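ok so I'm stuck.
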Amino acid sequence: MTETAALPPARRFVLAGALAVALSVLSGGLSPTAGARPNAPSPLIRVVVTSATGWSDAAAAVIAAGGNVLDQLPLAGGVSADLPRDAVLAPSYIVAPTGP
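replied:
not stuck anymore, here's the structure
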């Protein structure tokens, strides 16, 4: 006779449910943080963002996306910036990474 068989039915039910949840989490079926927002922000990447309407619009787009403007590039109509890796800007902006 196993230990679980010796448990009262209510305890067996709780133990079986806890085991099912643990196995599901371990197999990737459930995330222990499902529905929770991650605490760590997306890593930043160094980019150049240009806009046909000038550097000030590019800077505004970077800031709105949660990035930091590092320098103005008025001849290119853009800015150098650190932008969150998962940021998405409107198609009117050209985003070019400056490094690997």
